[in-house]
Amino acid sequence: MSERRLSTGARIAAYRRLNRLTQRGLAARANVSHSLLTKVEVGSKPASQSFLAACAKAMAIPVTHLTGQPFIEEQSEDRLSGPLNDLRASLENFDLTLDDSPARTLAEIRPDVRDMVLARRDAQYARILGRSPALIDELVQLSQTLAGHHAEQAHHLLVQLYRSAADVAYALGLVDLVSLLLARMDFSASRCGDPYQVATYRYMRAYSTFTTGRHELGHRIIQTALADIDAGVRAADPVAVCAAGNLRLRAAILATRQADADTARGEVAEARHLADVLGREVTGNDLATGYAGAMSFGATNVAIHTAAVEMELGNHGNAAELAELVRVPAGYPPDRIGHHHIDTARARLLTGDNEGAMNSLQLARRIAPQKTRYHPSVRETIASLVHASRHATDSLIGYAHWVGVQL
Fold first, then answer.
1. CA atoms within 13 A on the CB side of 259
2. How far apart are CA 55 and CA 14, in angstroms?
3. DSSP state of 287
4. Is the separation of the CB atoms in 200 and 159 below 8 Å?
5. How far apart are the C-alpha atoms of 123 and 329, rounded to whole Å?
6. How far is 387 from 349, CA to CA, in rounded Å?
7. Is 375 within 8 Å of 71 (Cβ atoms)?
8. Cα 405 to Cα 397: distance, rounded to the nearest angstrom
9. Residue 235 burial (CB count, 10 A)
10. Phi (first) and psi of residue 315, to 5 degrees
């Protein structure tokens, strides 16, 4: 069987044996149920994100080793390999002036960066990878040849580009590329004269700790970011409120990975309060940043995360009920809607609603196809549906092939 077709359970079993651990030994070291580990290894139960994080940490490996990321064959099929190489090449330079003179001005480049931000919200990975490298080259050159406020604006735009590319790299499971993009993001965020871009960098840095299992570090990063923007939050600056709301929601998910239900729900409550302060849905376009550079936030995002937190804490029935209550407004980012349906599919699967789980996965595919294809939870859910199905339907078979799950 090719690496592409190995299940997550099979990978856990393989790494467990490499570490010379019995099932009971790994369960004890990871502080997970032996019964659940057994079921995950044979494919009768999907592995939750917190379960994977615990097993990976117990064996001192990245979570991506267990999920099978990066999905190289899919990247090749989707023609992402060449653009990924171009992105890596563009990241080589971040602080030097090259001989070539900038061909365009900041005003000419800004709409293209805004398009990349919107592509991130639409989960259009190929679009981001195809256009970001050239934009990064242009903006690095401008950041080194301009001075004062104009140089800051170049770095401001670079932060948004790096963030869009980092979302793609994280989704594809390219841990090394995420680290490199975060380093570049840190460099420009500290030079753009905008404390909220530093908060955005820290938000993304905390996100990367999901891969390593350093959730306590992620929590500390978020607390630092919140302290930095506290004055803006207290003044009800909408950009600060949006940043703080997203940081609180990220802290909530980090807490679920540590099985800390009280902290997770407390962070969601803080985010809900911030959404009330904001009083509207913000997608970034209407903030006074000159382009879609702020983090979107509002009651919908809080509602989505409320269901996700219960999902991660193992309260699957409650999560499914909360997911049903989410009402997505027009124009809401497909990236978040797709993720919501992916989480809802898992909740429905674990409450025995296999048909509902499949319906949610189909919705996710329609709304955010690239995000859905590369999301490891989708593979887990589909693999469990295949395992539970006596007679797989054509739609299940087709979906399984599309995401690379062995029938």
1. 10
2. 12
3. S
4. yes
5. 18
6. 12
7. no
8. 9
9. 9
10. -90, 70
- Residue type at 131 in one-letter notation: R
- Token look-up 């500290």 returns 190
Q: CB of 90 within 8 A of CB of 132?
A: yes
Spatial distance between the Cα atoms of 69 and 175, rounded to a whole number of angstroms? 9
Please, what are the domains in the chain?
1-68 (1.10.260.40), 70-193 (no CATH), 195-297 (no CATH)
Three-class SS state of 297: strand
Q: Whose CA is closest to 383, among 78, 12, 35, 125?
A: 12
Cα 332 from chain centroid (whole Å): 17
| Residue 317: CB atoms within 10 Å | 14
Q: Say how many residues make up the chain.
A: 407
> For residue 33, how many other CB atoms are within 10 A of its CB?
13
Q: Where are the alpha helices (DSSP H) in 146-174?
A: 148-172
Spell out the per-residue pLDDT of the chain, length 407, in tens: 444 556 888 889 999 999 999 999 999 999 889 998 998 888 878 888 888 888 988 898 888 888 888 788 888 888 888 999 999 999 999 999 987 766 799 999 999 998 998 899 899 999 999 999 999 999 999 999 999 999 999 999 999 999 999 999 999 989 899 999 999 999 999 999 999 999 999 999 998 888 888 889 999 999 999 999 999 999 999 889 999 999 999 999 999 988 899 999 999 999 999 999 999 988 766 554 444 456 789 999 999 999 999 999 989 999 999 999 999 988 888 999 999 999 999 999 999 999 999 999 999 999 999 999 999 899 989 988 988 887 788 899 999 999 988 76
Six token digits for residue 149: 């406020």
Bridge partners (DSSP) listed for residue 274: none
First to last CA, the chain: 12
Residue pair 123/370 in contact (Cβ under 8 Å)? The answer is yes
